[in-house]
Structures are given as structure tokens and as C-alpha cells.
Specification:
The chain has a single domain, classed as at5g01610, DUF538 DOMAIN, CATH 2.30.240. Helices cover about 35% and strands about 30% of the residues. The protein has five helices and nine strands; from the N terminus they run H-H-H-E-E-E-E-E-E-E-E-E-H-H. Strands 1, 2, 3, 4, 5, 6, 7, 8 and 9 form a nine-stranded antiparallel β-sheet that branches. It is globular.
Length: about 200
């Protein structure tokens, strides 16, 4: 099986070099989803909420735009997040910069998340002068607009009652996520009050 980045490159080469005919269009491989592109660049799918309708990506520069069916907001462990209907930035292996369209509410202020860096088993989110890191496994699933990860966790927990065994693992993930979100809140609040 081809590595995700090689698959993305092959897909883009085929799309750009194919003649513009109906017959060749039918033979082209399907376009990767925005979630698959995240994986190809080393990011988990959970950086984007469910509901991505399309995206544009310039592979030469890494500039991208992601389109959701509408703006999206949800809370995760006391933090409110807002995704605009269009999210843009520049992506490269393990780094998203010049990010626009995602905000986190800290106290009474909405602050733009401007950069995301994947470093080993951690994902770091930057709001400019401050950043916070979280375990990458907190983002293996995409949050759902309106309820974040709680929708996913409640579905998994109810299915574990039926005996599939995933519920305990999901409850442990939720505890870990709660602890890291509380740590982020403490760091941001500490820095805000120190200014």
C-alpha cells in the first residue's frame, strides 16, 4: 500500500496531466477527501469537524481552503470552539500556518487559532504568543457540530453496554481529553492574567 503522501502526490499528478476528455475523467482516481488530505500531511482527521463539503488545495504552495456546509460551533470540556464555513491556511508536513476560520473562546474573548503543529504524539495549537499541546489520540475522530466529541463518546458508550467493549476505552480517552483541556485552560488563563 502506498504511503498517504505518495498517494496524494500520485493523485495530483494524474489529475494535472490527464487530457481534458470525458473518457479520461472516468479513469481518474477519485479525489481524496479533506480528511484523507489531513492524514497525508501527518494530521489526525479530528482537526476538522464532520460536515466538510469540499476543499481546494494548491500542492505547490500548500495553500488550502476547506468548506463546511455552514459555520459550526461546539464545546469541549468547557471550551467553546467556532469554525467558520470557510477555513483557510497553508499546510505542509506536520504544520498548518496562516490559519483562518477557527476560534477558541477564552474567558470572554474569541481568539483565533493561527497555527497547528504535529510533533510526534502531540498536536500543538497556537493562538499567537501562546500555544498548548495535546495528545494526538484525542483527535482520531472528527467532532460533530453542536456536540463536539460528546456525540461520538455517548454513541460508543451506549454500544459498549451492548457488549462490544469499546466503551471503557472511550471513557478513558474522554478522561484524558478532559485533563488536557483543563491544562490548556490553566495555561491560557495564567498567561492572560500575567499580561
Amino acid at each position: 500500500m502506498l504511503p498517504p503522501l505518495l498517494l496524494l502526490f500520485a493523485n495530483l499528478v494524474l489529475l494535472s496531466s490527464a487530457p481534458n476528455t470525458t473518457a479520461s475523467a472516468a479513469a481518474d482516481p477519485p479525489k481524496l477527501s479533506a480528511y484523507q488530505v489531513l492524514l497525508a500531511y501527518g494530521f489526525p482527521v479530528g482537526l476538522l469537524p464532520q460536515g466538510v463539503t469540499s476543499y481546494e488545495l494548491d500542492p505547490a504552495t500548500g495553500k488550502f481552503s476547506v468548506y463546511l456546509n455552514s459555520s459550526c460551533s461546539f464545546s469541549i470540556e468547557g471550551y467553546s470552539l467556532k469554525y467558520k464555513a470557510t477555513i483557510s491556511g497553508t499546510i505542509s508536513r506536520g504544520k498548518i500556518k496562516d490559519l483562518k476560520g477557527i476560534q477558541v473562546k477564552v474567558l470572554f474573548f474569541w481568539i483565533d487559532i493561527v497555527e497547528v503543529i504535529q510533533d510526534g504524539d502531540e498536536i500543538a495549537f497556537s493562538v499567537g504568543i501562546l500555544s498548548a499541546s495535546f495528545p494526538i489520540d484525542n483527535f482520531y475522530e472528527s467532532p460533530q457540530c453542536g456536540c463536539g466529541f460528546d456525540c461520538v463518546n455517548s454513541e460508543r458508550q451506549s454500544s459498549s453496554i451492548a457488549g462490544d467493549g469499546d466503551g471503557l476505552m472511550m471513557m478513558e480517552k474522554k478522561k484524558k481529553s478532559t485533563m488536557t483541556m483543563m491544562s490548556l485552560r490553566k495555561v491560557i488563563n495564567h498567561h492572560l492574567f500575567q499580561m
